[in-house]
User: What shape does this take?
Amino acid sequence: MRLIKKEKGIVLVVVMALIATLVALGTTAFIISTTDIRISANYKSNNQAFYAAEAGIEEARARMKGDATNPIVDTHPTQSGWAAFIGTTADATNKGYNSGNTMHTRVSSLQSALNYTVKIVHQTDASGNLLYWGDANGDGVNERTTTNTGLNVYLVTSYGAAPGGANKTIAIEMARTPPITVPSPLYVEATTTIQGSSAFLIGIDQCGSSHKPGLVTTLESGSVTLNGNPSITGVGGAAPNITYNATNMDVQAMIDSIKGSANFSHNVTSDTFTGDQGWGVPTPGETLQYPSSCSLRNVVYINTNGTEVKLHGGVSGCGILLVEGDLRINGGFNWYGIILVSGAITFTGGGDKNITGGALAEASADADLVGGNANIVYCSTAVSSQTQNRPLQILSWADKTM
Assistant: This one.
C-alpha cells in the first residue's frame, strides 16, 4: 500500500511539473508570437511610410517636367528663397510653407491613397550660392556649378507617413537635363577632310541667334583639309569659319549618360541599316541648306562592338543618334537632332544628306571624311528640344529618417 501511495505521489509531482512546463512554454510562445506580430506590423508600417515618401519624390519629379500636365512652376529660378510644397495646407505649413510669402507655392497631391508632404527648394552650396547642373567648361559633361550656365539643382524632401505612427524622410537632389553641348554643326578630334562643292557646314543658327563656327576641332591649324571648295560658314564672318585648338569634349561620356534611355537599341558588328528604321522622318526644309523639322524625340543607340555601322539608302531619324564605333553614311540620309559618335564619322557616295542640329565625332585614329552632297545645318531648336522634356535626373539620394 505504501508503495502504491508513493508511486501516486510521484506521478502527481510529474504531472504538475509537466503542466507548469506547458504553461511556461505557452506563455513564452504567446510572448514570442505577440512580439513577432508587433515586429511584423512595425516593419509593414515602416515600409508603407518609405513607399509613401518615395511616391512623393516621384510626384515632384513628374510635376516639374517641362511638359507636365499638372506642373509645378519655378517662378523665381534665381532666388534662394523660392520653395514649393505638395500636400495639405496644414501639413505644408508644418514643413515651412508660408502662404504670405510670394516665393512660396503649394499644390495638393494628385492622389489620396498615400500620406506624404513634399518640400522643393533650390539647392545651394555651403556659402549659400545657388547650384546649377550644366556643362560649365564646354567638355560635354554636366556637373554642379555656381555659374548660371545650366539649370537649377533642386533639393526635394519627402515626408512619408503610415498608420501606426511610422514616418520616413527621403531627400534627393534633382535637375532637369540641360541641352547637349553642340559647339558647331560638326565637331571632330582627328585629321579631317571636307571635300566637294556640294558639302555645306552652316554654323549660322537657322532656328535662332545662337550662332556657331562652321567646324570645331581640337587639333591645330592645318588639321582640316578642304578640297573642291566646300562651304563652311558661321559666326565671325570669315570663310572658311573653322575653330582650332578647341576644348576636348568627352563624347564617350556623353553617349554613356544618354544610352540608358534609348528607345531603339542595336548591338551589331559591321552591320548596315537600309531604308526606314522607324526612327522618325523629318520634314525637309526648302533646300538641303535649310533646317528640317520633326516633333519626335527618339534616342537611337547603336553599339558596333568596335567596328563600323553603315546607314544607307534613305535612313532617317528624329532625336539623338548614339554610335559606339565608327559611323559611315552614304545614299540619302535625313536626321533632325544630334549625332554623337565615339569613333569616326564619314559621309560618302551619292544621295542628299541633311543633318539639322549637329554631329560630334570622337575619332582617335581614323580621319573623318565629309564628302558627297552633305549638309550639316546648325539649329538651336533641334538641339535644345531633345532634352527639355526628359524626366528630371536624380543626382543624389538619402534616407534622412531620424
